[in-house]
Design brief:
Layout (H helix, E strand, L loop, with lengths): L1 E2 L12 E5 L7 E5 L4 H14 L7 E6 L4 E7 L11 H11 L6 E5 L2 H11 L8 E9 L4 H14 L5 E3 L6 E5 L5 E5 L6 H11 L9 E6 L11 E8 L5 H16 L13 H8 L5 H8 L7 E2 L12 E7 L2 H13 L4 H16 L6 E9 L18 E9 L5 H15 L7 H7 L9 E5 L6 H9 L4 E2 L3 E6 L4 E7 L5 E8 L3 H21 L6 H5 L12 E3 L11 E4 L8 E5 L6 H10 L5 E5 L7 H14 L9 E6 L3 H13 L5 E5 L6 H12 L4
Parallel strand pairs: 10-11, 13-15, 15-17, 17-20, 24-25, 24-26, 26-27
Antiparallel strand pairs: 1-10, 2-3, 2-27, 3-5, 4-5, 6-9, 7-12, 7-18, 7-19, 8-9, 11-12, 14-21, 14-22, 15-16, 20-21, 23-25
Length: 685
Amino acid sequence: MTTSRFARLPQGEPITVVVELGRSAPPVLELRGPIETTRVEAALDSIAARHPGAPAWTADLQSKGRGRHTVRFKDGPHGEPAEFPLGALADLLTHGGRRSFITRHLAATPRQRELLADVDAHLDPGRQVEQAAWDWHGPLDVARFTAAWRSVSARESVLRTAFDDQDAPGLVVHDQAEPEVVWLSRGSVEWHSLVAADRRRGLDPRRPAPLRITLLGGGPASPSVPPARVLLTYHHALLDSWSVRLLVREFYRAYLADGELPGGERRPDMTDYVSWLATQDTTAAQDFFTGADTPDAGPVPPLFTETGSHPEGRSRLRLTEAETARLTNWAALWGSSESTALQAVWALLLYRAGRASGPSLVRFATTARGRGVLFEGVERTCGALAGPLPQSVLVDPDATVPQLLAALRDRSLEQAAYEWVSAGQVASWTRPPGPPADTLLTFEAQPRGLAELEAELATYGIEVEPPQTLGARTAFPVTLIVHHDGVGRLVLTASYNQARLSEITDLLAHAALLLRELPREAGQFTTVGEALTLLSGMGEGAAVLPVRAEPQGSGARPAVLCRPAGPDAGTVGLLQAPGISRAFYDQLAQAYPGPEELLLLGSVPAGGPQAAVGAQAVYDALGPHVRPGGTLAFAGFSGDGVAACAIARLAAADGHRPLAVVLDASATGPDDLARLLAASVRRRH
């Protein structure tokens, strides 16, 4: 496997940062590589600016010539140990040592903070992560493909954005950040296994690059060769599906322009949106969301409350082109859209599944696209503008189906002006709080311009289709995503707790049954009660094929890459970095001169409450690999410095004198990294 992380040309000796920690002694940081004193000082200033609320640290910088620096940290002003963010400094130096340290900071939106809080509350790297994919027929130049995505990343600030690690999370926009582009040769992996593994791997929102691009295949076109496949994996807290389609559009433009987009950073972006959001008055939005329920009707209780951690299940179903066209025409007859028809069907299903009788309030959530607000340029703004908002609709068996459609349509139109509001804000306004929605309904649309670029690609013998959603793991027990495929068919994809497989597949089949039959059976005077009788033969709908759920491994036990030369040889633990294959670490281990034992450790989040939990889990799993008196070091590539230092601090608290080693691996092969790592773990101050 090849990633863009190692694709740059060599630029001299890599930058290496070694941090020595002791139980009571202040930490010492040693820096080697092509970096000047002024840039070390700039990095220290940058760290101080990123942590304005923290106590003052005292750092003594000593230079022993170009590219040889030592930073000694002293106790705080009152004698307490100075908890300097050593890992963040190591990451900054190894990632930005040859670049500018320029970043800009902006506030996260309420919606982004809520999504991040949900991620932090779960030990699941795939939480709030969505995937989309498409086939690429015709010639594909892999180098041009990679260059085009790099050009898009340079132009789109959202692809260089990450959350900081403050108590009140904000966003950091980096001036430079490499996109993660992974290329796999055709036949090297089975597609469904690749998708499942990539989904389990997830994304860390505290690392820049909230979009991962995986390419399977590519090269010259041949009738006997299957098409290449492109997989996009992205994080909801920084990117929504509309934005991803915008980015695909920009990628096509770059690919057609030999891999390079003209011009600088594109605006508007999230900086402009956050500024606009700060000026909005919530009074009208609060009135809208708190005045929707009918007090005389009882609510249908939640049906899919989470009961624990289970593997994720996914199921998919398609309508035919004729069925989709019939549904579209039927909805238009009543002044509605496919999206409104889908909401009506979902409300009917929840009403029936909840065994309701008489007029009842059905609650669910829908994903607001965030593009109906009065922000100039909102349709071409990339970011996390979309998000869930609660819906509450009165389902009355005596009302007509067109009346139900009209109620949902009118609410959707009124809500469009308040799509900038978050679900958490709505919950804070609601007194007393109602039962939470436990299902999320998402109708994904395509931005304009994709079809024109697809036609232009066709002139080069390239045929592509719109990216197809593969599902998303959200905070809701059940998420249903609906979109059109390349030939216009309606596709329903459900993501859910695998323990509810039978219930959800039945529900999805019944949804398809209503979407097919209502356009045939429901007229102007058809009541909701009569529509529900269409489900009297439950279980006789179309078959739904479950997508195989892959088991979730704990990854707690470290893998032994290289055995120790003797009982006192010591241990070096390597943190597995995102996007780096096991084969790369195996090559590094073969070149490592020893004598230490070399272990491959699991990955640890870059920040948030789960970072400490992850570091503790990795340290606890070492067990007998930590030998008293022997060398102990925890190493990672740039971006894993925070995790390496966190694990090293745990070892120091146990009385060890560990090292944390952070390597700039951006232009270095495994053989050279093995040499640098071996030299680093033998340094003592």
